[in-house]
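Re: the multi-chain job from yesterday

Posting the exact lines I submitted so nobody has to dig through the queue logs.
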Amino acid sequence: MSSRRSRQTSGSSNISDDQIKDLVSKLQQLLPEIRHTRTDKVSSAKVLQETCNYIRSLHREVDDLSERLSELLATTDTAQAALIRNLLLQ
Amino acid sequence: MASLESIINAPEPSTNNPETTSPDADSNPNKRRKIGHRTVAADASLNHLHWTSQSEQQIYSTNLLRTLRHVLRRNPSPSTTASKPRQVRYAADRVLAAAAKGRTRWSRAILSSPPPFNNRRMLHKKAPAARKKVTGLRSMRNGMEKKKLPAVERKTRVLSRLVPGCRKLSFPNLLEEATDYISALEMQVRAMTALAELLAGGGSPSGLAGESLS
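And the result, structure tokens for all chains:
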């Protein structure tokens, strides 16, 4: 943490461009669309766009899964649930 | 470790974590900035990778199943409580946020947001209207020009709305939060998918057990 402080020498912005570039590339590694593209070929705007799209699609997936789970859990009885819990704990 | 009750019941900001910002601290911009910078620590980069571990996913699945069975067993009055899928989503998000152990802003924001309500809320409709008015004035000041912010800034704004609790975060902090949030969401999808497969007739329960053994 102290090393980070010593880097903040400029008065206007406390964040270096390298730091931002590093964060953007880390984010890019997570994105399925542009994961393998070289970082200098991908603009920050594209990374941000893909990030937004990806988060939205993940939200949609979670919503769909929630719907599936709500239906499945309504029909499962307690004995089965106990069995599942044991399987999960293995 | 968050208890079952704390996840299900009305939200209260977690007090166990020393790094957690209370609502009062958040209102003070100086304090908020300092704490925001502190959370962009070196070990934040390790944090987002821990969502890929098998044990993390198993812990999440267990907690999620326990929470969901508890939530869905109650017979709520359909007029005041939200639909079942929305309750499931809400519980899944809260268990996920609890798994973050208060280290990230998005998780704290999720844990302090109220449960879904069935009634048509005015609050939701007011906010976009208010925002529209402001941008209208701004474009008039520029001589009726079309509002053309730089692309990066526009997308940053959209991103800050997608990640919970990050609307007023600085750019690097927002990126850190987004990175962790995406990893967490991926784990959530993996865990819920596995759970759904398991419940849908136990096609291959060995599939899940096999994963844990390898």
